[in-house]
């Protein structure tokens, strides 16, 4: 299978992010969508730029972007054709609030499977990439993260989005002594990448949309990580659906949390 030139993809994404996202960061206007989420002019400008360039270089692949209508997104997924899954600005609330945690996320889906993932963090100039079966890379260096040692099964840092988890699980997390420290930086794309790089030890999220996890879960998997949804299925299923996620790089710690959460085998 001949995939797009990832070096060319990296270049066009980096240039677009630097020219659009960094230029407006710190003084961007914003408004609210119907679902209550934040959107900025940079979201639309970045998506338009990526759509134009991706169609120019690789016209045979369709485009599914966060800022498209749900009907348009569903039509792409149901077509059965290959497509780019784009989040032009993941972490928009951070971006609008002048918090430096946001990224561009792109995945290439072929035959309902992730084949290529790229996430670019323009603030730190970090670009994470993965091609299925070829490992994951950070700034062209292959990620080779050896398993860490954990005391009493307590991760050093747990990246947890509490508000989207089932209430019973959220209460259990805050009342039992199960982790040493908890964070939520507000960008699913960065979450997956920082998990891949070993910066977080446990990841728990109750509801991500397709463009939030399409690239990131591939990068994490190619880095050697373990993940599963809270209903005991693969996080990515090639559908336009909201998915939960439990992820960990260390297999023993993953198994411990899997049992502690009480994920039931189907």
Automatic annotation (TrEMBL):
Enzyme class: hydrolase
UniProt cofactor(s): Mg(2+)
Catalytic activity, EC: 3.1.3.25
Lineage: unclassified sequences, metagenomes, ecological metagenomes
SUPFAM superfamilies xref list: Carbohydrate phosphatase
UniProt KW Methyltransferase keyword: no
Entry's Gene Ontology BP terms: inositol metabolic process; signal transduction
Protein name: Inositol-1-monophosphatase
MF term (GO), any: metal ion binding
InterPro entries from the UniProt entry: Inositol_monophosphatase-like
Native species: hydrothermal vent metagenome
Keyword list, A-Z: Hydrolase, Magnesium, Metal-binding
Keyword match Metal-binding: yes
């Amino acid at each position: 299978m001949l995939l797009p030139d990832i070096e060319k993809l990296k270049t066009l994404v980096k240039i677009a992010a630097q020219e659009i996202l960094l230029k407006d960061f710190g003084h961007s206007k914003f408004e609210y969508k119907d679902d209550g989420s934040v959107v900025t002019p940079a979201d639309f400008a970045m998506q338009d730029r990526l759509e134009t360039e991706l169609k120019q270089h690789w016209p045979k692949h369709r485009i599914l972007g966060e800022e498209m209508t749900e009907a348009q997104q569903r039509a792409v997924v149901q077509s059965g054709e290959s497509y780019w899954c784009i989040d032009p600005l993941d972490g928009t609330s951070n971006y609008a609030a002048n918090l430096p945690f946001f990224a561009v996320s792109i995945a290439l889906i072929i035959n309902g499977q992730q084949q290529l993932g790229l996430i670019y963090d323009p603030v730190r100039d970090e670009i994470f990439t993965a091609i299925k079966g070829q490992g994951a890379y950070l700034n062209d260096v292959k990620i080779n993260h050896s398993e860490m040692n954990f005391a009493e099964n307590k991760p050093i840092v747990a990246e947890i989005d509490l508000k989207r988890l089932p209430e019973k699980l959220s209460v259990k997390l805050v009342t039992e002594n199960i982790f040493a420290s908890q964070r939520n930086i507000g960008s699913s794309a960065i979450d997956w990448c920082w998990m891949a790089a070993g910066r977080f030890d446990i990841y728990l999220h109750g509801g991500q949309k397709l463009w939030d996890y399409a690239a990131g879960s591939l990068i994490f998997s190619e880095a050697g990580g373990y993940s599963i949804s809270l209903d005991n299925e693969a996080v990515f299923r090639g559908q336009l659906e909201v998915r939960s996620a439990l992820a960990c790089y260390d297999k023993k710690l993953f198994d411990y949390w899997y049992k502690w959460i009480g994920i039931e085998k189907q």
